């Protein structure tokens, strides 16, 4: 979850630890995610949250698993944070390791998402961005994003169906 000063001076808070999906489901992840609500008085701390999630996922990367960072946002970064877009993209680029692929998948929901921003962030990791301007179409967007996660190198390369 991310917004300004959400966790002390941090602009993000981890809601679920890194675990296999089956363990997440058994542990109540769906209930946790259903309980999420947009912050009505906060800014979108997208850059801070993406960098923290990617760093954590890089540390927790596991061979033989689908490793991905999925970010859902309803806006563009408008937070007065320490990190700029250029710095975020540079740091994401520096963390790439073809032997340990970790795609970033951006999912934008609603009309306030900056498509170019979300796309640039996802592309820096070999991932993709998906936009659902109509929130009722989010199911279609999730299916498209799942197809990217299921298509992992070396079997699938960027540009392949689903990759």
Relevant CATH superfamily: von Willebrand factor, type A domain
Written as H for each helix and E for each strand, in order along the chain, the element string is EEHHHEHEHEH
Query: Kindly state the mean pLDDT as a whole number?
Result: 82
The Rg value, from CA coordinates, equals: 15 Å
Approximate helicity band: 25-40%
End-to-end separation in angstroms reads 27 Å
The CATH C-level class name: Alpha Beta
Strand order of the largest sheet: 3-4-5
The oligomeric status of these chains comes to: single chain
Q: What is the architecture at the second tier of CATH?
A: 3-Layer(aba) Sandwich
Tell me the structural class: alpha/beta
In the CATH hierarchy, the third-tier topology is known as Rossmann fold
Keywords:
6 helices, two-stranded antiparallel sheet, single chain, globular, disordered C terminus, Rossmann fold, alpha/beta, three-stranded parallel β-sheet, 163 residues
Describe this structure in words.
Helix 3 packs parallel to helix 4. The protein has a single domain (2-150), classed as 3-Layer(aba) Sandwich (Rossmann fold), CATH 3.40.50. Strand 3 (68-73), helix 4 and strand 4 form a beta-alpha-beta unit. With 163 residues, the chain is α/β, with parallel strands linked by helices. The chain has 6 helices and 5 strands; from the N terminus they run ββαααβαβαβα. The strands form 2 sheets. It has a 3-stranded parallel β-sheet with strand order 3-4-5, with helices on both faces. The protein has a two-stranded antiparallel ribbon with strand order 1-2. The two termini are 27 Å apart.
């Amino acid at each position: 979850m991310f917004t300004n000063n959400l966790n002390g001076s941090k602009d993000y808070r981890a809601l679920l630890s890194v675990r296999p999906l089956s363990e997440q489901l058994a542990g109540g992840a769906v209930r946790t995610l259903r309980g999420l609500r947009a912050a009505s008085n906060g800014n979108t701390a997208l850059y801070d949250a993406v960098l923290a999630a990617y760093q954590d996922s890089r540390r927790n990367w596991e061979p033989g698993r689908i490793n991905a960072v999925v970010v859902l946002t309803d806006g563009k970064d408008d937070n007065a944070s320490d990190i700029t877009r250029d710095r975020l993209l540079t740091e994401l680029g520096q963390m790439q390791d073809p032997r340990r692929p970790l795609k970033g998948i951006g999912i934008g929901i609603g009309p306030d998402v900056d498509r170019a921003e979300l796309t640039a962030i996802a592309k820096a990791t070999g991932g993709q961005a998906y936009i659902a301007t109509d929130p009722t179409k989010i199911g279609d967007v999730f299916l498209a994003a799942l197809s990217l996660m299921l298509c992992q190198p070396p079997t699938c390369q960027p540009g392949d169906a689903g990759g």
